[in-house]
Amino acid sequence: MVGLGVMGRNFLLNMADHGFSVAGYDKDAAKIAALVCEAGQREVRGAADIKILVASLRRPRAVMLLVPAGAPVDAVIEDLLPHLDNGDLIIDAGNSHFTDTDARMHKLAARNMRLLGVGVSGGEEGARHGPSIMPGGAKDAYERVRPVLETAAAQINGEPCATWLGPGSAGHYVKMVHNGIEYGLMQLIAETYDIMKRGLGLSDDELHDSYAEWNRGELAGYLVEIAGKIFSERDAETGRRLIDEILDVAIQKGTGMWTSESALELKVPVPTIDAAVSMRNLSMLESEREAAGAALPRRARAFPGDRGVLLQQLARALFAGMIITYAQGLALLTAASKKYGYGLNLSDVARIWRGGCIIRAAVLEPIRAAYLRQFGLPNLLLDPDLGTSVMAHQEDLRIIVATTAQLGLPAPGLMSALGYLDGYRSAWLPANLIQAQRDYFGAHTYERIDAKGSFHTEWEKQPEP
Length: 465
Ligand code: 6PG
Fold this sequence. Notes:
The chain is of the alpha/beta class. It has helices at residues 6-17, 29-39, 50-55, 71-80, 98-109, 123-129, 139-152, 170-199, 204-214, 222-230, 255-266, 271-283, 286-295, 307-340, 346-352, 364-373, 384-407, 412-424, 431-442; strands at residues 22-25, 44-47, 62-65, 89-92, 114-121, 132-136, 155-156, 159-160.
């Protein structure tokens, strides 16, 4: 392992726990010492330089990298290359951009070496006790490290949350979309928090109770679970609830934005993920928001209805929003799989997302079943089971969206989820007017319902009726 930050160290200890003999290297000697100290009696070696690390490995070698995406990955590969031989394997387990992964694979292939691009999700705890692992690259290269990865991964009902996903950058692409969905779900949950806090005036204790209760039902999942726990945490300094001491500005490393960028390029609508990225960016306009709040005031409105009923509707709206967000991400994977030749099996993707990763949730079981029922399912909403489930919750989503609009609370995640649902189930859309306008102002032509081909009209020259 190169890179002994918490993720690298924990992942290595996880492998050692399962009886694999491993070694780790980091530029920072303190991190090597921390690894060796924590390893105790396990078969873990620390290497003081990269040459020693490589020399300690059995041939053909497998070297995993857990370093920040971008230039650090290239720098480590450059450092490793002089010491590696034909047939050696590098495993990039960071959040690399998929196009970088493809480029690095070509570069290494030219030197008879292999690269696996492996998404790892689950944070520090996951790395230590079982993450979800999303590997991509040459199948035979994966086979070499399969026992380690599938043993170290989270296990659900005896099945590992790791499987070979496809060639090239398939693993890193799937991890990127995992993170895009993660952004979407976090935005939806944050909006429910806003509605409960500013709309209904719930206390932190009540917020804790709501999410804890939701986590016992159909909404069960890691992000809902930790939302509940967050509201009960006290600040060690002030003794107040920690959540109320945290700045309302959400930064990002960028994987959600990459998902939106790729979706735009592939012309796949993922509006809830886009909204989540935009809302993080809007949160960063802290002083502007404050000025705008003063310049554009609107009287706060209290929710006039039954709070208990609204809370139930809110949970059901969130469930619909969550399924719709998974549907957007999975539709993007369907398109990317075709475009980039990944040959993804989405029931496998849903299966390895059931445990270990940040977006793990009970609903991934029916999502997996949907893709098992129909391999080429174009959109999750077309699955009879999940489609029926969304439609059974849609009225609640509408009520919540209308309520947030009336109260003046921002809920672009929930609104975009509803807009996507209504847009997707619209056999007719007003896009004919957009075609007509394009042709009117720019002679871009339009297609007709009643004839094939491209048509243009001299709009201004048409006689007035
Ligand atoms: C995971 C997380 C992990 C990381 C995110 C944070 O799956 O374990 O997604 O990859 O915490 O990259 O992303 P942002 O900094 O962009 O929110």
